[in-house]
Design brief:
Layout: E1 6-9, E2 12-15, H1 26-30, E3 33-35, E4 38-43, E5 46-50, H2 52-65, H3 74-88, E6 93-101, E7 115-122, H4 130-135, E8 137-141, H5 162-174, E9 179-183, E10 189-192, E11 196-201, E12 204-207, H6 218-229, E13 233-236, H7 241-246, E14 249-254, E15 258-265, E16 268-269, H8 275-288, E17 299-301
The chain binds ligand PPE.
């Protein structure tokens, strides 16, 4: 992975290589952590964190759902993140806040194990490849069902839950596909291993509802709003597996992945990225980079010192 200079760890900025934990940290053994994936983009007005508030609110909700009390407020984490981006001299980056039970007590009711919090930021390119963003990716329905609300909390973004995503992703990668699509306990489409799913059928966009076993994606929410603003109908409803094969267009959304068209599901070709996908993807990219006036409120601009706010001009 690419690195940066500093990581924010429990209130302090420490050199990247020195941001360490004890091997008996609770989170390492039991997956007791909650995290976020956030992106910061270069804009004309300097670096801007996309939907920062919503991501930090989701982090707080995830912590609450797992009975973890965060020792820092969203305002403190926001400030720390801005400072981290500044100190690392980053223009665009992926941001990973993580809160986990640290060292101090073992066992499953380890209330005295302290909650540790880190925020890291580093450059992370296209999650599913630049080519995938342009020409679409190949997906396969996983033999692993998505975690159900009966046993875990799909709406929380918790570390341990990702073993489910990792099984699905590993299976799809080992079979030569770019990404896995998971079904829920009833056989309905839920999500990708790290993305929400959208279909286009007869000009209407469809995506599984909030009540499904999905992470309530912030990119999903942004894309629903953009699509509706563009005049498209968006239906949040159950999606049958066969609808994936019959879709006119299909795409995935997530912070890391951004908006990625799907060109194949279970060896059924869907073709090159469709028209509606292209229109929404372009508008979404405009929103991310501060080129769409009506979505400027989604951007949390990072103040950078005077003189440092000019992107370095290479080959110009
Ligand atoms: N579902 C899952 C399971 C998921 O992990 C993500 C984000 C989403 C949906 C989309 O949510 P949002 O980012 O709010 O639009 N996946 C994160 C983790 C990726 C990773 O490999 O780590 C991400 O995109 O940052």
């Amino acid at each position: 992975m690419e690195t940066a200079e500093l990581i924010w760890q429990n209130g302090e900025f420490v050199p990247w290589q020195e941001a360490k934990v004890h091997v008996l940290s609770h989170g390492l053994h039991y997956g007791t952590g909650v995290f976020e994936g956030i992106r910061c983009y270069e804009t004309e007005r300097g670096p801007a964190v996309f939907r920062h508030r919503e991501h930090l609110e989701r982090l707080e909700r995830s912590a609450e759902l797992y009975y973890m009390e965060l020792p820092y407020s969203a305002a403190e984490l926001r400030k720390a993140t801005h400072e981290l981006i500044r100190r690392n001299g980053l223009r665009s980056c992926y941001i990973r806040p993580l809160a986990f039970r640290g060292y101090g007590e073992m066992g499953l009711f380890a209330q005295s194990a302290p909650i540790e919090v880190i925020v890291a930021a580093w450059p992370w390119g296209a999650y599913l490849g630049e080519d995938g963003k342009k020409h679409g990716i190949r997906t396969k329905v996983s033999s692993w069902r998505t975690i159900s609300g009966d046993s875990l909390i799909p709406h929380a973004k918790a570390s341990g839950q990702y073993l489910n995503s990792i099984l699905a992703k590993t299976e799809s990668a080992n079979s030569g596909y770019d990404e896995a699509i998971l079904l829920d306990q009833h056989g309905c489409v839920s999500e990708g291993s790290g993305e929400n799913v959208f279909l286009v059928r007869d000009g209407v966009l469809c995506t599984p509802p909030h009540t499904a076993a999905i992470l309530d994606g912030i990119t999903r929410d942004s894309v629903v709003q953009i699509a509706r603003d563009l005049g498209y109908r968006v239906e949040e409803r159950d999606i049958a597996r066969s609808e994936l094969y019959l879709a006119d267009e299909m795409f995935l959304t997530g912070t890391a992945a951004e908006l990625v068209p799907v060109r194949e599901v279970d060896d059924h070709p869907l073709g090159e990225p469709g028209e509606i996908t292209g229109v929404i993807q372009a508008r979404f990219e405009d929103a991310l980079h501060g080129r769409a006036e009506e979505y400027l409120e989604w951007l949390d601009f990072v103040e950078v010192p005077a003189g440092a706010d000019e992107p370095s001009k290479v080959n110009s």
